[in-house]
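Many introductory courses stop at the sequence. We go one step further.
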Amino acid sequence: MCADKSSGKADKQQKSGKAGKMGKSEQMDTGLSAEVRAKFAGELGQVLDDAYSLMVHTHVYHWNVRGRLFEPLHKLLQEHYEALFESVDEIAERVRQLGHQVPAGDVKFPSGLDIPMPMPGEEVMVADLLARHESVVRKLRPLSADADEERDFVTQDLVNELLAFHEKAAWMLRSILNRANERSNPLR
């Protein structure tokens, strides 16, 4: 996204949700106005930030998982970070297709990549990833509806694919947590 280095204005607008004021976009005649393209590029940039952070957390947890669920969780997290890597690329490419730059270089991802140290146990890892997937879902759902309303069907298709992945990942992680809770509280 186009960042105004002198004032930080673009960063503040993006964080505050004013994604429609991302700066100048490439000229194109695709049936979507510059304002609509800027709005969706900004919103997708925010999803990209969350998905990238989630990918890194998932990868680090994959490396550091331990305990009784090591093997299945290690494999599941690998599937997730590989899928997240692909989705991050798809999101970034859609931002470019909309005529805007993708965050890079000296732009910092606002969601942060603060990995807890020492590494938490498997249930804390799973709960953290679950919360992150659900957070992405909450951003994607209104974005899909907005894309439909603005007739940006390509963005809507991408967002719906992302929704399906994140909802399925959340379901799997939630099931792991529920199973762990049932083991620790058999009277439940």
